Amino acid sequence: MRVLGIETSCDDTGVAIYCTERGLLGQALHSQVAMHERYGGVVPELASRDHVRRLLPLTEIALQQAGMSTAEIDAIAFTQGPGLAGALLVGAAVGTALAFALNKPAIGIHHLEGHLLSPLLSEDPPQFPFVALLVSGGHTQLMRVDGVGRYTLLGETLDDAAGEAFDKSAKLLGLGYPGGPAISRLAEQGREAVVKLPRPMLHSGDLDFSFSGLKTAVLTAVRKGLADEQAKADLAFAVQAAIVDVLAAKSVAALEQTGLDRLVIAGGVSANRRLRDTLERAQADRAFRAYFPKPALCTDNGAMIAFAGALRLAAGEVAPVPDGFGIRPRWPLSELQAP
Questions:
Q1: Mean pLDDT of 266-284
Q2: Distances from the Cα of 162 to the Cαs of 85, 166, 211, 242, 332, in angstroms?
Q3: Which helix or strand (DSSP H or E) is residue 52 part of?
Q4: Which of 66, 126, 149, 213 could form a disulfide with 291 if both were Cys (CB 3.0 to 4.6 A apart)?
Q5: Is 108:88 a contact under the CB 8 Å cutoff?
Q6: At a CB cut-off of 8 Å and minimum separation 6, what does 138 contact?
Q7: Cα 88 to chain center, whole Å?
């Protein structure tokens, strides 16, 4: 089965083709970071318009990489939600129109399910069941994963997500967008233990998160004044360390609570080098194994959507030829059903 996947939930336009027999055949991705950077964040209307410009050319590139024509596609998968409504509409419209024209089935995919399953695209994929840490600009959740569509929420953020904490802290420090990579780059010049920041809910006794208090602490530190670039780097180091410490501790606690020994980390923040190093070091002491997606699959991409669509269709989910389409800008992952 060859599935064409379309991702347009926010500010990345992604198209990919996944084959259940041969794996990932082709993919193309365009990031809008340069366009949104001047505004300090994503502008929804600009994001939607750029998806319109990019989607069909990227589809042609992915097909060329795969050495295929549209007639050889067996199904279309597109991101149905959650995300920006206008951006989702672009992908849904193109995906369903293409499926209708080709007389092929179309399946709407949950954006977070795509991230959640993306580590299974690696050469050494995790086996079910596992604990998953979904950590991105808009989401921070711990899930128990027993199979495709079989997800149990263990804990989530009560306010800002980890990615939002990175973005807002970066903005306070006068850094670029997106904040995560900007903070990480500056933190490389920072010194450990020079600046002390709180680890919100680190000892709360549950698996929930909260990062709004960290943002307030960063604001307070900035208002007190940063003497030079070294002081700014020291604060960036402290921000990254605080976020990573909480994410790692809660993830290990989730493994202990569930009795599982496999941890999947997915979403944009899963690319963070300190988070990866921290969890990789913890593996030996805590007797678990951590799985990360390939760096190219950490950000939003079409490959994860094509792959999730292929898994659901292979498991028997019915995806009829569309006669219309719908999007779900707000769509809790807990509402998903198994195929």
A1: 94
A2: 22, 6, 7, 10, 18
A3: helix 44-66
A4: 126
A5: no
A6: 82, 161, 163, 164
A7: 16
Question: Whole-angstrom Cα distance, residue 115 to residue 112?
Answer: 5
Note whether 52 and 94 are within 8 A (CB): no
Residue in the structure block whose two tokens are 């292929």: 310
Residue type, 307: F
| 318 pLDDT tier (thresholds 50, 70, 90) | confident
The structure's pTM equals 0.94
The token pair that represents 296 in the structure block: 């190219």
Q: How far apart are CA 98 and CA 26, in angstroms?
A: 18
pLDDT tens for 276-290 read: 999 999 998 889 999
CA dist list (Å): 1 to 72, 77, 116, 205: 10, 12, 21, 45
Which runs of E-coded beta strand occur in 267-303? 289-291
Structure tokens at 316: 């028997």
> Are 69 and 25 within 8 A, CB to CB?
no
pLDDT tier for residue 319 given thresholds of 50, 70 and 90: confident
Six-digit token string for 47: 């994001």
Share of residues in the chain with pLDDT > 90 (%) = 90
Place of tokens 């199979």: 147
Q: In what order do the strands lie in the sheet with 12-19?
A: 23-31, 12-19, 2-7, 75-81, 106-110
| C-beta separation of 252 from 282 below 8 A | yes
